[in-house]
Every structure is written in C-alpha cells, then in structure tokens.
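Predicting holo structure, magnesium ion bound.
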Amino acid sequence: MVAQTPALMRRIAHLDMDAFYASVELLRYPQLKGLPVVIGGGRRREDDLLAQVRQRYPDREWGIEHLAEIPVDVFPRIAGYSGRGVITTATYAARAFGVGSAMGVMKAAQLCPQAILLPVDFEQYRHYSRLFKSIVRDIAPVVEDRGVDEIYIDFTHVPGGQREGGRVLARLIQKCITDATGLTCSIGVAPNKLLAKMASEMNKPNGISILFIDDLTEKIWPLACRKINGIGPKAEAKLKTHGIHTIGELAACERDGLTKHFGKSYGAWLFDAAHGVDDRPVVTESEPVSMSRETTFEKDLHVQHDRAALGDIFTRLCQQVAADLQRKGYVGKTIGIKLRFDNFQSVTRDNTLAFFTADPLAIRQAAGQCLKRIEFKRRIRLLGVRVGSLVKAADAPSPTSTSEKSLSSAFVVQEPPPSKDSPYEQADLF
Ligand code: DCP
Ligand code: MG
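Done. Tokens:
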C-alpha cells in the first residue's frame, strides 16, 4: 500500500525589504542610524561628501574607506535643497514627520527640514537586491521576483515551511539576510499571494505576520479596500461612491452586483479578493511586461519654446529604452509615452506596431506619433517612453513574415481630427 502523505497547506510568503534604498545607504554611513534620512534629489557622485569633509576637517586623511567616520554635521540637510527632485524613500525616523516615497523633496523639506538628504545610487541598490534574493533562493528555491525589494516565496514544500504557519522559516530567512547584508525585511506568510502581500505590511519594519484563512474577518475585513494589491485610487473612489470603504463591506456585496458595476472580470476578482481567494502560482521566472524610461525636468518645458531640448530628451529616452531591451534580449510592439504637465495631470498614449522591435529609431518614430495625439495646453514636467507587449527577441516572429505593406503602415495611427481652434502644433512636435 502506498503511504499517504498528509495534504500540505499552501503557505506563500511575501518579503519586502524595509526602507530599502535608505537602509542600503545606512550600511555605508552607519553614523546616520536612527536619524531622519531621505533618498532622492539627484544621483550619487563619489566625491561629493569627501570633498566637503576634507574642507571642513582638513587635519586628517579622508578616503573612501572612511565614509563611516564622516561627522553627521557634514551631511547635506534637506532644508538647503532647491530643485525638482522626488523622494524615493525615507528612513522610518523621517517617516515620523510625514515624509515618504514619491513626495517632492521641497515638500519634505517643509515637513522635516533637519532631515539628511542623500542622492540615489541604483547600482548599489541593485547589488543588494541580487544579494538578498540569492540568499532566499538558497533556502527556498521557489521565488518570484517582484521588483527591486520584493519577492514571493512558496513555503509549502520547503522543510520547516509549515511550522508555526511559516514563522520558523520566515525567521530563518530574516536572520540569513541580516547576517549577510546588515539589512532587515518584513515577511508575511498566508495561504496565497494576495493575503501574503497584505500580511508583510502589518508588522513593518523587521516584522513577521502569519495569516490563516480563518483570520480573514478579524485581520483583513477591517482594512481599507485600497490595501488590496489591485485596487488603485480609481477603483477605490468608485467603491466609495457605492458606500464601500472596507474589505469587509466589499465582501458583503453580491458577486452579481459587483460584476454589474465593475465589469465581469474585475467585479469577480473584487469579490474573490475580498474573500481572500487567490490561486495565482508563484512564478519563478517572471518575464517583464514592459520596459520604460522617464525623466522629470529641472524646470517645466514648453512644447514650442523648448522644442529642441524636448526633442533631444525624447530621443535619448527612446535610445535608453532600446538599449535596455537589447541588453536584456527583448523586443516589444506597444510603444507608449507618458507626460505629466505642470499641474501634475498625467496623460499616456500608446501605439501598437505590426512588428516587434528594439530599434531606437522605430521606437522614436512610434512614440512621436503618440505625441501628436496629445493637446499641449500646459508646460511639461515629465516625459516617459515605454515599450510593452514584450517577448524574448529569440521568440519574436521574424520580420520577414510581416508583409511590407503592414510594415510601412505600422506607424499609421488613429489620430483625432485636428481641432480648428487649437493653437498647438499638430505635426512634428519635437
Ligand atoms: N521607490 C521609489 N519610488 C517610489 C516608491 C519606492 O523609488 N515611489 C524605491 C525606493 C524604495 C524601494 O523602491 O526603497 C522599495 O519600495 P517600498 O515601497 O518597498 O519602500 P521601502 O522599502 O523604502 O519602505 P518599506 O519599509 O515601507 O517597504
Ligand atoms: Mg520595501
């Protein structure tokens, strides 16, 4: 007789690093621990701080090996900053003042003028990102990459993954990451990805939260709908118009009512999500859906007066996305642009080609067509270029299978008829 193994409970973990960019900076500058520090405003240049400290404290030698000894008073304060930069993240000490991701640096300076402002160093963050992920994979191999500081991990079949609902393994992973990197993370373990993601936020920083499906009513239903990954500001606003604020209120809705108001697929998903139902597997090799590059200008640019500058920036963004695609071996066929105006209103347009490409010129041309579908009433603050519908270059249908006709018509897009009273350029924008 075949021995029956007891059915294992599905246990999925979500791991998210704590104040990731800031924590990586604090490895280099441990003297800043416990202080309000924000990351943003510019890119790191190796010698900036060393030059400062040499000037202020000229009596000794200052080199790259002395970064941890730089006195705190040498570090730039956010109050001295005047520019357009945005904060990527802040230490928990800075968050106590209301400072957080995506906030303008100037706004953060009002909230917490004494905060220390450090520039970003993506190279370093990528290094630590790879490092912590490889540590986790050595312990639990089924890992889904969700970006620079987040992963899902399938605990179900990992030895120890079921003990205390996953707490024992989560603790081990936390310890291994901290021992190897000096960084902390928070982990949520739950029956699926949806709940695990919510759980990892519940005990930040350096926390573990264990959820079982029986915890749904007590721990999940009181939360705002927005806490569900997949309910954004628009869906949240619409739910509110129906008097639905919490996940519990959403769960109390009839499935049919939700599909009627939110569409068949999103409505059904909302219903399942509110009941903690999510069958998505942990996907070990996640393929990128799109790649993009964007930039916020130092000062807002005018579509006509700054046309040359805009044209150069636009071309460079296209070249950068093309280089990203080529380096990673992808091609895409949906070319999109994003603009943000000086009133923070954002618009996006995209254009699907008849063929896949990673060619900067093809991307530039298609993105240029998208531009023409935007009415420029205000100055531009941000410009971005995105290539989506990606496939591995090796898997893309060969261009020779695309007829010449469809190739040449690939850039013809549906444009709205030019409005007669519009003073704005309709052709060759920048
Ligand atoms: N990030 C960014 N811009 C944002 C949000 C985040 O550049 N609008 C970057 C900086 C963060 C990193 O991504 O360090 C990870 O994002 P998280 O949302 O996980 O934020 P943190 O890790 O900084 O903080 P937490 O402890 O809340 O996870
Ligand atoms: Mg994080």
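The two ends are 75 Å apart (CA to CA).
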